[in-house]
């Protein structure tokens, strides 16, 4: 628990997000009925992901920030589209940009990148094309050249579950 | 000869009979084939395995259904956006928005930019509310860095964002009418907008991408040209707004195409994350300026306006009411504006202490918020923007089934999405 002038912060484990958010939304004393934002943060290749929810309540003069930790090697989180339908696009964006898989989301497709794109551009270990040649991942990242896609090499970096989802084998 | 052949409803006939009749009538290519993923071909997608349940639902066709691409170059999609519309005859049965044609990866770019440069990157996102786009990161970075803007700077900020809201809303009125075939209102809208844009270029130096806000203040003080233009504009703005109101509000075509169209209940709107004028038009009094007051809004007097209807017409009336409210706020701000500095003392390169900050503002399209994380360096570690029109777009697939295909754009225009913001 951590606060600043207008935000209260709670840190939870990723798999408890639905239970926690459901209580926050449905308890009349809390009444955090509006999902203001849902975003993912990458804390680096050796650390973890975080899915961050911001909630609004008319009972409390603060924003509530719920930070859910997600394991980077196996990035599965329950989907909250059952609580707020509008989380759909947020979750699709998080999947597209970070490669986080939301279990129970029935439309987990890419939203910005094309459907056959195979990287997750907002991860911290994704380098922009400018500096890709200098990076340790040079030649591995497919970037914008689909003819160079080599899935056997990609699968070393991506968690197997993510790759299966990208491939559509699921 | 052709006119004598009467074609019964093709769905009731078997394929041979239908083909024969079409041949006799000398008309129409064959129907699109029905079946799973039959739709992929008709919207120009390569064959590939299905990824999700929803994709299977949209791209599988039943007998008599077909898919139509609306966009990405459609003139009334308010930017570059594609709607895959599933139609049965002229009735929409499903809509799948396809985004990403304007995706520039601004969030990723901002991770490479200094805090001051971020404020220039966010301008072209939602290009009809650039001032609001700068306002939220400015507040968030001030929280991170622990600096407060001087009072006069806060008043100038509130003044320019309210001006920006007026021109955004007057353009929305024009575009809504334009999507229903009325050309005149958009011209009135642009007259109103150009006056405000000239005013904002007098204060910031640029017409559209203002780059006006700074961490700890604003770039320039309000000058004489700005106030002189503001006075001239204030003299006749209400007359201009009433003029466009008279052209649109009671127009019979406009009324029949907006009343009862795209009705969204307050409960659904909250679940879908719709915010701003669109949410208030569904009767939910949620306005960030009151709910989480920022800047100088606690010092101003105003009420949250709502409409009971929830349909396209209510969303339009809500915009008009908000234009008048903003003009009232502008009067109050100019009355109360104090003297003093407009920029706090901040170093050239800002290095906040490690931490996190969240700031939300009420943009013309709703809740625009920024979540910034600092790791102590000169660039934000993570910079997240929540764009209101991105989230509001989810309402379109909910509202359109059962409506005519021609109303898709009319309902979409009433939500006033801006694709620059949707695609980031």
Written description of the protein model:
The complex is a heterodimer of chains A (170) and B (424). Chain A has one domain (2-167): NADH:ubiquinone oxidoreductase Nqo5 subunit (Beta Polymerase, domain 2). Chain A has 170 residues and is of the alpha/beta class. Chain A has helices at residues 17-26, 87-98, 129-132, 151-157, 160-167; strands at residues 2-4, 7-13, 34-42, 49-56, 63-70, 76-78, 101-103. Residues 137-156 of chain A have low confidence and may be disordered. Chain B is globular, with a radius of gyration of 24 Å. Chain B is built from 18 helices and eight strands. The longest helix of chain B is centred in the middle third of the chain and has 28 residues, at 151-178. Chain B folds into two domains: 1-30, no CATH class; 106-392, Orthogonal Bundle (Cytochrome-c3 Hydrogenase, chain B), CATH 1.10.645. The mean pLDDT of chain B is 85. In chain B, 47% of the residues are buried. Chain B has 424 residues and is of the alpha+beta class. The chains are: A alpha/beta (170), B alpha+beta (424). The interface between A and B is large, with 46 and 43 residues.
The helix fraction of chain A, in percent, is 10-25%
> What would you give as the CATH superfamily of the largest domain in chain B?
Cytochrome-c3 Hydrogenase, chain B
Largest sheet of chain A: 5 strands, mixed
Shape of chain A: globular
Number of helices of chain B: 18
The helix content of chain B is: 40-55%
Can you tell me the number of structural domains of chain B? 2
CATH architecture of chain A: 2-Layer Sandwich
Q: What is the CATH third-level topology name of chain A? A: Beta Polymerase, domain 2
The CATH architecture assignment of the largest domain in chain B turns out to be Orthogonal Bundle
Mean pLDDT of chain A: 76
Helix tally of chain A equals 5
């Amino acid at each position: 628990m951590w606060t600043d002038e207008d935000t209260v912060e709670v840190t939870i484990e990723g798999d408890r997000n639905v239970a926690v958010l459901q209580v926050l939304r449905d308890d009349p004393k809390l009444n955090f009925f509006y999902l203001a934002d849902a975003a993912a943060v990458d804390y680096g290749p050796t650390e973890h992901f975080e899915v961050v929810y911001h909630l609004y309540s008319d009972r409390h003069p603060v924003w509530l920030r719920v930070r859910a930790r997600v394991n980077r090697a196996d990035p599965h989180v329950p989907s909250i589209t059952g609580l707020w339908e509008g989380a759909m696009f947020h979750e699709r964006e998080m999947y597209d940009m970070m490669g986080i898989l939301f279990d129970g989301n029935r439309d987990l497709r890419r939203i910005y990148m094309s459907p056959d794109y195979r990287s997750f551009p907002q991860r911290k270990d994704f380098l922009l094309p400018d500096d890709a040649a200098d990076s340790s991942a040079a030649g591995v990242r497919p970037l914008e050249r689909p003819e160079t896609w080599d899935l056997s090499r990609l699968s070393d970096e991506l968690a197997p579950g993510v790759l299966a989802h990208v491939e559509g084998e699921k | 000869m052709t006119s004598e052949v009467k074609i019964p409803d093709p769905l009731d006939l078997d394929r041979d009979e239908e083909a024969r009749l079409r041949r006799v009538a000398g008309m129409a290519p064959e129907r699109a084939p029905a079946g799973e993923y039959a739709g992929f071909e008709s919207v120009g997608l390569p064959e590939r395995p299905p990824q999700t349940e929803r994709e299977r639902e949209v791209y599988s066709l039943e007998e008599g259904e077909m898919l139509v691409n609306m966009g990405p170059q459609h003139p009334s999609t308010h930017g570059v956006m594609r709607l895959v519309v599933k139609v049965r005859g002229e009735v929409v049965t499903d809509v799948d928005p396809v985004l990403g044609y304007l995706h520039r990866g601004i969030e990723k770019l901002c991770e490479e930019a200094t805090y001051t440069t971020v404020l220039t990157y966010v301008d072209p996102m939602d290009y009809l509310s650039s001032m609001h786009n700068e306002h939220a990161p400015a507040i968030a970075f001030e929280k991170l860095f622990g600096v407060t803007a001087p009072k006069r700077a806060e008043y100038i900020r509130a003044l320019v964002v309210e001006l920006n809201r007026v021109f955004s809303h007057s353009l929305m009125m024009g575009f809504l009418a334009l999507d229903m075939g009325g050309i005149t209102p958009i011209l009135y809208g642009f007259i109103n907008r150009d006056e405000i844009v000239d005013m904002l270029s007098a204060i910031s130096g640029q017409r559209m991408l203002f780059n006006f806000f700074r961490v700890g203040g604003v770039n320039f003080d309000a000058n004489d040209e700005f106030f002189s233009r503001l006075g001239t504009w204030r003299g006749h703005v209400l007359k201009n707004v009433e003029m466009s109101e008279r052209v649109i509000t009671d127009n019979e075509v406009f009324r029949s195409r907006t009343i009862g169209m795209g009705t969204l209940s307050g409960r659904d709107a909250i679940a879908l994350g719709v915010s701003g004028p669109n949410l208030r038009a569904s009767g939910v009094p949620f306005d960030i300026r009151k709910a989480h007051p920022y800047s100088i809004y606690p010092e101003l007097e105003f009420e949250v306006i709502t409409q009971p209807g929830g349909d396209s017409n209510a969303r339009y009336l809500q915009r008009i009411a908000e234009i008048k409210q903003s003009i009232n706020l502008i009067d109050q701000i100019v009355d109360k504006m104090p003297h003093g500095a407009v920029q706090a003392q901040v170093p050239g390169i800002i290095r906040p202490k490690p931490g996190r900050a969240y700031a939300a503002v009420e943009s013309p399209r709703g809740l625009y918020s920024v979540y910034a994380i600092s790791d102590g360096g000169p660039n934000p570690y993570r910079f997240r923007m929540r764009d209101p029109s991105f989230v509001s777009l989810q309402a379109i697939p909910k509202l359109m089934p059962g409506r005519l295909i021609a109303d898709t754009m009319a309902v979409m225009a009433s939500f006033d999405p801006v694709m620059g913001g949707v695609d980031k």
